[in-house]
Design a protein that fits this description.
heterodimer; A: mainly beta; six-stranded mixed beta sheet; five-stranded antiparallel beta sheet; globular; B: mainly beta; seven-stranded mixed beta sheet; four-stranded antiparallel beta sheet
Chain lengths: 110, 110
């Protein structure tokens, strides 16, 4: 049974800072890795995803994947107050079933 | 962007009551999912389906039934609701990797 764990549980950063969120997974056969963002009172929304080892950048957001260490991360450059949200990582071993972590609550202070 | 709607948005019932949560997606996605979200647990998969008439068991299925009547419609049934099922319920749909979430149904079981 796949287990996905996130750290830290919560994080407060000043506006303009680099934010790093971490996720570990237990199934070495996992093939797909994603980050979702959920603003307060809203539905989760896909942010970024990756299939292969390495990194992928989209604007201020970068996702890193290291399958050997069972770890992937999300980095937010120049964090903005509008980035304040619950960030959920997820991994899939197939059958398009995502296993989500418990989330990191990010607060960006103006 | 994919459209997923849920009804009702809020529901209050009593212990032992019957509840049906509805989800509709209008993007012809094959996969539909039901999750519950509780503080500290992230999103936990209850049931999912990859087409009309198909049902797959998720990670926390006890006390829940589901039925996929059409490509568009996926229902979650609580036949004997218990206070432990008080939660925020999300439906999602996908066609391959990215999942698109509905706005959620907040259920309170007294």
């Amino acid at each position: 049974q796949q287990k996905v764990q996130q750290s830290p549980e919560s994080l407060i950063v000043p506006e303009g800072a680099m934010t790093s969120l971490n996720c570990t997974f237990s199934d070495s056969a996992s093939q797909y890795f994603a980050w979702y963002r959920q603003h307060s009172g809203k539905a989760p929304k896909a942010l970024m995803s990756i299939f292969s080892n390495g990194e992928k950048e989209e604007g201020r957001f970068t996702i890193h994947l290291n399958k050997a260490s069972l770890h992937f991360s999300l980095h937010i450059r120049d964090s903005q107050p509008s980035d304040s949200a619950l960030y959920l990582c997820a991994a899939s071993s197939g059958s398009w079933q995502l296993i989500f972590g418990s989330g990191t609550q990010l607060t960006v202070m103006p | 962007e994919a459209a997923v709607t849920q009804s009702p948005r809020n529901k209050v019932t009593v212990t032992g009551g019957n509840v049906t949560l509805s989800c509709r997606q209008t993007n012809s996605h094959n996969y539909m999912y039901w999750y519950r979200q509780d503080t500290g647990h992230g999103l936990r998969l209850i049931h999912y389906s990859y087409g009309a008439g198909n049902l797959q068991i998720g990670d926390v299925p006890d006390g829940y039934k589901a039925t996929r009547t059409t490509q568009e419609d996926f229902f979650l049934l609580l036949e004997l609701a218990s206070p432990s099922q008080t939660s925020l319920y999300f439906c999602a749909s996908s066609d391959l990797d990215t999942q698109y979430f509905g706005p959620g149904t907040r259920l309170l079981v007294l």
